[in-house]
Amino acid sequence: MKFKLQHIVAVMAMAASLVSCNDDDDSSQNLEGTFGDAELFFENGFAGNEFNLGAPYINGNGETITINRLNYIISNVVFIKADGTEYTYPKADSYFIVSEEAGSFTVHLEQLPAGDYTKVRFGVGVDTAQYQLGLEAQQDFWSLAITNNMASVWANGYRFVNTEGTFTSATVPLAKAFSMYQQNTNGNDNYNEITFNLPNTARVRHDIAPSIHFKTDVSLFLDGANKIVLANNLTADGSAAVIDGGDNLVKIAGNTDAVFSVDHVHNESGTEHAD
Amino acid sequence: MQTNFVKTVMGLLIALTALQVLAAADKDTLTLPPNFSKYLYEFDDCDACGCSASGGGMGFSSMIDKNFVGVRYFYQSYTSRDGIFRNSPWIDENFNTMQVWARVPVTKKIQVSAQVPYHFHNRDLSTGHQEINGLGDITVLGLYTAFQTQTDSTSFTHTLQVGGGVKAPTGKYDGANNGSVNPSFQVGTGSWDYILAAEYVIQHGNLGLNAMANYVFKTENSQHYQFGNQFNYAGTLFYHIQANKLTLVPQLGIAGEVYATNRQFNEELPDTKGDILFGKIGVEAGLGNFSIGLNGMLPISQNLTGGRVEANYRWSVNLNYSL
Question: Which helix (H) or strand (E) holds A17?
């Protein structure tokens, strides 16, 4: 028997008919009045490499640093659309601690207005205005800060960044302790807000919780545009290096913007990073 | 849509099976080429699943059999960076595919070819072992012989085939898999893709050269992910050795794949385009209606997924029955 061309045409037509089915496109969806979640996920690195507590890293200041504690406060999150309109996350709920030792890397945000966001802004630390609201206005977060060594007594305020560990350098052959507490001191508001352009739009939807994956370079706190050599900051008895005030913190504030960058954005539902 | 889709796929499969049966039954009424020119046809295609996945460039044809139905297994080894840092761990990814493939004549000048793959892939992420398996994307292609010299009239023979086809999203696409590692760790693209293809074969004596190129237009899937369009090309030298009823066809060539940037919600995703060039070597052995093929591919140069994915090698083995 002869096989007819028509049969092929029929098969192809069947295939083509499938193809013409079009699926729903969400671009036409009305997002008005709908909400969704989002998260900021922080992954710490050291000069482009993975970061681990307790591992020695050599920085550009020629010092070998072993960090045993790395915590920082992320605050005042703002999501920004392409047209410049901003959504400010409710301020009272907008303080978070990222902690290596606690394994807390995710800032989970709820009930954001659905929309396409192209920028995100957050602060590192706690702004003066919030602090001046007093202890009672922020008891919960203060307690969390105490638990995570991000505060000690109210009068001293919050530690924005807490880095503790040991170091050696050319002049310090035997490891000495160091601590670096970024905070608001001596009238210097060392609180930074940083705005990030997202490499891909974060699409907040009722069924899509975008995850914005931040990559940090913690080496830059001390070894950024401004250099802070630990060996030059020893205590009077020479037992440890302590960075907790004065010009050093202004320098660190200047370095902080570069510490954080956005690596990528996930828009799949169900791809949130596990803590 | 779902039911429709299943129905249509079933329809396609039934139609194809029918084609095969008919073609087989019709065999002696077709003008079969003499043994020699039977080897003229090769077709390289891929049921590629985004960048690097699922056997792009593994070929879609046999140098022994113009028309066949067979099974093929192929393996692809990749190493991918599991993480965002320079020293993030590199993990092995193993892509296994078992495939029913066929190429059947419809008229003297028209062939239909099809691939029905089953994938079983695995990898060891830093978070644990992961396996995915299942039916892959089914590809159906129509090929038209646009030009063919008479074998006995010249010392050089030329054949040019052009065609087009469709790849159906019969494999499951799982958005959760395209995280920060290899976005192509999938058994399907989830999209309807369209293929344009051309193949040219020139042969002189026992020696031949096959040159092919095809382009795959990929569309957005229901999860708004769109793998980048893909260009495949290959050049293969082959040589026929005939010993009684046994035919041996050693082959040597190159194969390349170029991938455009993946998109999601119609936005380009950084570091998802790529290209790779393979050297390939293989041999086919035919006896009677059966043939066995072995193929290996090693990368010569590559830049896949922003350097986060490295192809190590591919190999395949197939058993075909000549129709």
Answer: helix A5-19
What local confidence, expressed as pLDDT, does residue B181 receive?
A: 78
Q: What is the Cα–Cα distance from A235 to A227, expressed in whole angstroms?
A: 18
Give the pLDDT band of residue B245 (cuts 50, 70, 90).
confident
The nearest CA of chain B is from the CA of A19 a distance in Å of: 7
Ordered by start, the domain boundaries in chain A are 45-78+130-158+170-192+228-240
Chain A residues in contact with B269 (beta carbon < 8 A): 200
Q: Do B175 and A15 touch (CB under 8 A)?
A: no
Residue type for A167, please?
Answer: F
Render pLDDT for B84-107 as a digit per residue (tens, 0 to 9).
Answer: 999 999 999 999 999 998 889 999
CA distance A49 to chain B (A): 5
Q: Which residues in chain A (171-190) have CB-CB distances under 8 A to chain B?
A: none
pLDDT digits (tens, 9 = 90+) for A164-188: 999 999 999 999 999 999 999 867 8
Among chain A residues, the shortest Cα distance to B225 is held by A268
Confidence band, pLDDT 50/70/90 cuts, at residue A5:
low
Q: Residue B23's domain is classified under what CATH number?
A: 2.40.128.130
Please tell me the total count of domains within chain B.
Answer: 1
Instruction: Report CB contact under 8 Å: B192, A266.
Output: no
Q: What tokens does B200 get?
A: 């040219």
Q: What share of chain B is helix, strand, coil (3-state, %, to 5)?
A: 10, 55, 35
